Every structure is written in structure tokens, then in C-alpha cells.
Amino acid sequence: MLSFDTLVDQVADGTVDTVLVCLVDMQGRLMGKRFHAKHFVNGAWEETHCCNYLLATDLAMATPDGYASTSWENGYGDYVMKPDLATLRPVPWLEGTVMVLCDVLDHHSHEEVPHSPRAILKRQVSRLKEMGFDAMCATELEFFLFEKSFDAIRKSGFRDLEPISGYNEDYSILQTSREEHVLRPIRNHLWDAGLPIENSKGEAETGQEELNIKYAAAMDTAAYHTIAKHAVKEIAQQQGHAVTFLPKWSHEKVGSSSHVHQSLWQDGKPAFHDPSDELGMSPLMKAYMAGLLKYAPDYTAFMAPYINSYKRFMKGTFAPTRIIWSVDNRTAGYRLCGVGSKAIRVECRIPGSDMNPYLAIAGMLAAGIAGIEEGLELQAPTTGDVYQGDTGMIPGTLRDAATALKSSAMLRAAMGDAVVDHYVRAAEVEIEDFERIVTDYEIARGFERA
């Protein structure tokens, strides 16, 4: 991290000349402006402005109708971007550059915009604080690395995609040594940017990678995830390669996930741990996990926000299909890790690599809080191959997940009606856009035979 006083000194001596002033959009991307560093330290650190459509677009930056917060009728006015100086950090993969994340404020009231991803997660973290707990989380970033660059792949029409390796490279040191020209600068640059990087590894497919970051407070974890995802794309491009965080880029390949580990702490100690319990789970943890399970359909749209997200949920691919918990079992939607130790935690394996970490973590925290407040009882763990069975299924489509989100009384109470309605509309936009497109699959299957 970087203090403002240090930044002032670095600007004065010419070490830093650019400040990236960023908000996190609905899709979990960094959006904002590049400031001349001298202008930033001379006054722009207080606030800047952006069009309010940045929290009402789709992946392609289209401006669909149906949002209550902004529209063509309302003229697409401004939001205030308020730099959070506690998030100042260097960006070592870009020369002379630092970054700061912003809160998004209403231009008139200067209150936080409630459907801003940072504001949504802040609200759930604050609720836990009032209960005496700190939310600790970690996310795993999975992605595919390709032979060609983003530009080359785009110009080819996204066809004939070739991963950087030709075989499953799960834990392979031999193959990942060939990829170190990309992964080594990713690890080192992110470490130098203040992210507690643990490791990278080959994942269970051709060209698939995983980046692991040490657990931290929920807000920090979401920031680490967002910054790392952005950096992976930029650093790969600098080395002439493309990456994708699309959960399922080929039906012949396994998908990419983003597992979320979580636990609650109290007074600096793990509140999920009880050494007298057979598995080491405290009553608090059991109620929290029961909430995660009960309300999983409600927040699935935050963990799997696009049409493609649901193509990852297939048997035998290490992606879950059922809302079930088990002890150290990678076929379950929720895996108990660190059994019997102070590191005991729950790993949610449902989120895909396309999740917005602020929204996904906020949804999980809200569900866990509900489990605690309702005093829910945790069912016994499932054993064996959890793929065998047809109960407690994860919503199978974005439409199903959007319906569950829309009808969630729990999330409406936790986040507010306006926030829920905003992200229901986001899901509807994705569905509407997909349904109007004629796909290659339809043409190839039916052009002659239909």
C-alpha cells in the first residue's frame, strides 16, 4: 500500500506521473480515469466525476433500459467518484503509475450509491461488525492462457482458440515452467502492488491456471481479486498472450471457477473454531453454513451472473451441481476445509471465474447472517460422490437464478429492494440479449437438417 504523503513525495521527484482513479462496475471491472499525478495530489484526490451509466451497463457497455437509477429519460447524469486513499497502491506493471479505488456517491446527496458493488459489500461487513464479527475471505482465480494475443484472437472472430499448453497441467511443474514468462511477472508485480500472493499453479485443463491470494478482510479480498483479474489481463497482453475468465469457453473443456473461502473472526480469533466439536465447528459456524445452504438459490445470480456461467455446472468436472456440504469433498457445492484446526472454514465452490467478488461475497455474508439470526440448524454432511442425486440442485439457468433473486425476502431485507431490483434487471438484460442472437450452434445443427 501507499500513503498519500509518500505519493506526494514520489510525484515531486518524478517517480510517479500517473494515477488510475477507478471504480468497480457491476461486472467487477475497473473503470475510471488516468490523472496526471500532479493534478491528482493538488486537489483531484478529493473527488472526480463519471457518468452514472457506469453502474447500469452490460458487458459490452450498452445502455439497456429498465433501470430505476438512470435512463435516457433522466439524461444520464453524473456520479461522484470519491477516492478511498486507504486503497492507494503502486501498479508495478505500468511505468510510473499508482491506483486508487473510489466510493461512488450520488451527485446531489453525496451519499453512497446503494447498488455500487463496494457499497453492497460494505453494508454486509458493517452488519457483521455490529454483531461483533469480522468477515475473513479468500478467493481463487482460475483462467485460461492462450497462445495468441487478445487482438489476434478478436480479429480471427474468436475462432480456432489454442491454449498455451496441449494437455492437462494440473500441478505440473514441467508445463508451468514454460509459462513463467507470464505467471512470474503476475506473481511478482501483484506482490509489489501490495497483494499477498501465495502461489500460482497449473489447473486441471489445457492452458488453465490458478492464482491464490492469502485470506484477508472481506473488503480487502474483493479488492485483491478485482485488481488481480485486471492485472492478469494486462500482463498477459504485455507478453503477447490472451487470457479468459469466461467460465466455459469450450464445451470440450472443464470450466473455470472462483472458489470463495470464508470464516468469521471475533477479537482477532477464529469464531468458527470449537475444539470440543467432532469436526471443530462452532455453533456459530454451523448456523452460518446453514444460512449459506438455505439461501444459496437467492444469491446464485451474484455467483453466476451470465448465461455462460451455468454451462460450467456439469458432473465429473469438479464444478458442483448441488447445494450440499461435505467434509473436504470437491464434488460438493460447499466444502468444509481445515477440519479440527483453527483454520476451519467453508469453501463455496459455486462461483465461476466471471463473478464480481463484491457481489458474491456480499450475498454469502447476507445468507450467513440470516442463518445466525434465524438460529438455523445445519444438516449432516453428505458423503461420497455428491454428483449422485437430484435434490438441492443449483439453479440451472440464469433465468432460474434471477427469479430466485427477485423473490428473495432475505436479500431484500439485507440489501434493499432497489439493489435487488437493479441486479435482477442486470440478469434480465443478459437473457434478453442472448435470446435475440442466432448462434453458430443453431446454424450448424439446423441449416440443412431442420
Properties at a glance:
single chain; 450 residues; alpha+beta; 10-stranded mixed beta sheet; 6-stranded mixed beta sheet; 16 strands; 34% helix; 19% strand; globular
Overview of the molecule:
This protein is of the alpha+beta class and 450 residues long. It contains 14 helices and 16 strands. Strands 7, 8, 9, 10, 11, 12, 13, 14, 15 and 16 form a ten-stranded mixed β-sheet that branches. Strands 1, 2, 3, 4, 5 and 6 form a six-stranded mixed β-sheet that branches. Helix 10 packs across helix 12. The longest helix is centred in the middle third of the chain and has 21 residues. The radius of gyration is 22 Å and the shape is globular. 47% of the residues are buried. The mean pLDDT is 96.
Structure at a glance:
The protein is of the alpha+beta class and 450 residues long. Helix content is 34%, strand content 19%. A hairpin with a 6-residue loop joins β5 (89-90) and β6.
Quaternary structure? single chain
Radius of gyration: 22 Å
Sheet with the most strands, sense and barrel status: 10 strands, mixed
In the predicted model, the low-confidence regions spanning at least 5 consecutive residues are none
Helix content: 25-40%
Strand fraction: 15-25%
- For the termini, the CA-CA separation is 60 Å
| Molecular shape | globular
- How many helices? The count is 14
How would you state the average pLDDT, rounded? Answer: 96
